[in-house]
Amino acid sequence: MLRYSKIFVFLICLWPLCSIIYQLFYNKLGAEPVDKIINHFGEWTLIFIFLTLSMSPLKKITNSTIWIKFRRMLGLFVFFYASIHLLSYVGLDYRFDFQPIINDVLKKKFVFIGFAAWLLLIPLAITSSNKMMRILKHNWKKIHRLIYVIGIFGVLHFIWLSKTIFFKPLIFLIILIFLLLFRVTFNKSGSKV
Amino acid sequence: MKILSSEITPEKIYKNRRKFIKQLGLTSSVFYLAPGLLNSTHASNNLTDYNYVTSYNNYYEFGTGKSDPAQYSKDFISNPWSITIDGEVEKKIILSMDDIKKLFPSEERIYRLRCVEGWSMVIPWMGFSLNKLLKKVNPTSKAKYVKFESVLDPEQMRGQRYPILDWPYKEGLRIDEAMHPLTIMVTGLYGKELPNQNGSPIRLMVPWKYGFKSAKAIVKISFVEKMPTSSWMKASPREYGFYSNVNPNVDHPRWSQATERVIGEGIMSPRIPTLMFNGYEEEVAHLYKDMDLKKYY
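^ inputs. structure came back:
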């Protein structure tokens, strides 16, 4: 049963990719297709970060550990979409012309922090297997707390590239704060008990 | 002056006519082409498709998404309309839209539009030089700047119900910038009435400045003594200056302005270099002689 539901969730997670491929073939990407593709994958990266961060609150709320079984897959989709996002920026927008890209990374804080977030995702992706979990033992948990930093970096990246915080960046910020606060309050009440 | 529907040129003929004119290497007297457009090294001189011009807009009065203006301005009523010209003038005047259409016949002006966000279009506007309108009043000796104010109508403009910007939208120009013949008041595009999402019924267009300087749906023009604070200056003074001239050498604090993506050119076309004063350097550079453009951004 779990196997089938995992396959099912996996297929749903491919939706953002399929929708772009569909729009590409049917010429529905609009006035600024490159921008649309980059933004689309950027936004979905953030959404997958939020989904990943929702699993342990859901576990506590519903008193069921089933959620945790999907967390690794969701986390790997974060890395997957973040990588497509980065690749479309480097390849489609700047056509692998690294001079202006390096310039952007060093000079523009929104590019810098976005790139930093992607770099931080790499160790998480590498250490996502059961084998690595066993090898790293309690260090594994410490390493994977990086997802909080990545979430903050990701939302800052979105806010800093937007002309105004209204409305999407603001909504994303509120969701992030909500998900992070959940951890603070839960840990506090946990330690009191 | 009324435009007969038979006088409206279909889009395709428009484009062919443009090509024809370019092939001949001359500019027609009826169709005024901005000088910078023909002899520039700019990669794109093709007109941006009408559908993109009218569906990809920044007009926060109707929402912050690019498709919001087209979607939420459908029922916007801009009739009756009038513009007040006041401030440091001998006698203020109020002109109705009918007066304006009668007094200032529109001509076609094909201009580049460069958005501060890093994209660009080429649009065949219908309009007239702002200086013709401004000459209807006598400014006093105190007048140094011209301030523009857009309409305030939260009932019709859903974006104005939120504090996205300091409503009503305000912009400003130095008097010499406002009097420059390239600075126009726009009443239409592609030979048609100006669509709501593009700033109906009347808007400003200053082709050598970033798009946000060209205020839409203008109701008031005031001559003032002190440099006006625009809505964007108020929102983020470090990022949006009073001048906001297109300048590839002066970056927005958060992103580069060296290149731009041309709207409608498709997924495979690369960014193109942004030109100084958006390609109108020959016509306007003298306005900023001896000015540090990094300081006066």
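Residues 2-192 of chain A form one domain. Chain A touches chain B through 27 residues (CB under 8 Å).
thumbs up if we can close this ticket
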